[in-house]
Amino acid sequence: MRKVGRFVVVFAAMGALFGLNQGSATAMEAFCFTNDGDDGGKSCYIYHEDKDGHHVDSVKFDAWGEILTVNDLVANGEGVVAYVNGDRYPGMPSAYGPQRYDLSIAEGKSVELKSCQIKDGREYDCHTEWAVA
Length: 133
Description:
Blueprint: H1 2-18, E1 27-33, E2 43-49, E3 55-62, E4 67-72, E5 79-84, E6 87-90, E7 99-102, E8 110-119, E9 122-132
């Protein structure tokens, strides 16, 4: 039993050291929908939220036109980065507004949309949704 207790203490210390509990976002909201005017397409939105339930960033893939929007909404020292099918698309600091990317993805192709928070070069609190171009 003592070994288990020591393991828990060591694991907690490592978590604190390596930032496993990093950042202020405590929740996440994500949804996908098909009624966006693009027959066969599916758009997805991902938001990280603070402890009060307010959105701190957003990553949006719109099937109509294959538009990716990465938006850091709050100047809190954290940022947001998106991945579309493994390709990285960084956001801008909140003072500069949303970063928009016009992607070229074949109609009907599955789109892996991943959103991560970032602070001091480290990505964390990632979430993935599946859209369709």
